[in-house]
Amino acid sequence: MIIRGLFYILLFLNFSLYSQENQSYFEDQFYLGLSYNSIGGKVDEFKENKFSYSISYGFIKDIPLSNNGKYALGIGLGLSHNSLNNNLKYNNLNFEFIQNLGSTNINRYNYTELQIPFEIRWRNSSIDNYKFWRIYAGLRYSKVIQSKYIYEDVALSNEIDDFPIEKDQIGLTLNVGFNTWNISVYQSINPFFNESIDSDISGLKQFRLGFIFYVF
User: Fold this and answer.
1) Which of 211, 86, 110 is nearest to 160 (CA)?
2) pLDDT (0 to 100) of residue 92
3) What's the CA gap between 53 and 72, in Å, rounded?
4) CA 172 to each of CA 89, 120, 138, 167, 185: distance values in angstroms, whole numbers, following the listed order
5) CATH of the structural domain 31-215, one choice from 2.40.160, 1.10.10, 2.40.128, 3.40.50
6) How far is 120 from 101, CA to CA, in rounded Å?
7) Which residues contact residue 121 at a Cβ distance below 8 angstroms, ignoring those fewer than 6 apart?
8) Distance (Å, whole) CA 166 – CA 150
């Protein structure tokens, strides 16, 4: 239902704004994001381990708010593939902290999200200038559509599908840069894990820092 509704919104905006094309221009864009991915909060025993990443890609429809195109809204649809490595072990609906990470080969959370970004956009571009500064700030809703926990040490190997991550994620986004290179920051508003888990780690939230590339 979410995907279908967004499709109709984008289709409507294409038709309703078509008559303005001779006055303004559109920065409709495909995007690719590469970020360092983490979860954090006020949990003393929690530690990151190895490199965690997020790869996202999709399309954003541009909705000009001014004839010169410097101000606009953006709404899009995309996917994100994510990996988290830390010392928080998941087993039989319980979590425990790994005290000796050196004895653990893999302790990883993998998950895929459907993303719907919404942006308020500013750029100092023009209809014939494709190299410009931009500041895009907004919200991003993400729906977790697949998740897997993977653990491996010298004596045990285990994989669990659908671990207790919060399926509906929402966070603040900020993308700032010039031309191709743009710094991307994401901070979630709601907790990473759902309400079924131990309250000691219920405050952990996602944070991502990396680059986002726009392709016209």
Assistant:
1) 110
2) 72
3) 30
4) 28, 12, 6, 17, 8
5) 2.40.160
6) 42
7) 27, 62, 71, 72, 73, 74, 134, 135, 136
8) 18
Q: What is the mean pLDDT of the chain?
A: 85
Give me the mean pLDDT over the 42-57 stretch. 88
pLDDT in tens, 124-179: 877 676 678 999 999 999 999 999 999 998 888 889 998 889 999 999 999 999 98
Q: Please report the sign of the dihedral spanned by the C-alpha atoms of residue 78, residue 84, residue 90, residue 94.
A: negative
Q: What is the distance, to the nearest Å, from the Cα of residue 118 to the centroid of all Cα atoms in its chain?
A: 12
Taking the C-alpha atoms of residue 91 and residue 209, their distance in angstroms, rounded to an integer, is 29
Q: Where are the beta strands (DSSP E) in 17-129?
A: 29-40, 53-64, 71-85, 88-91, 94-97, 104-123
Residue 8 has pLDDT above 60, yes or no: no
DSSP SS3 for 4: helix
- Going by C-alpha positions, the residue among 209, 214, 215 that lies closest to residue 53 is 209
Residue-range domain boundaries for the chain: 31-215
Token pair, residue 83, equals 């990996």
Q: Tell me, what's the pLDDT at 101?
A: 76
Q: What pLDDT, on a 0 to 100 scale, did the predictor assign at position 1?
A: 57
Residue given tokens 């700030």 in the structure block: 137
Report d(CA 171, CA 140) in Å as an integer.
5
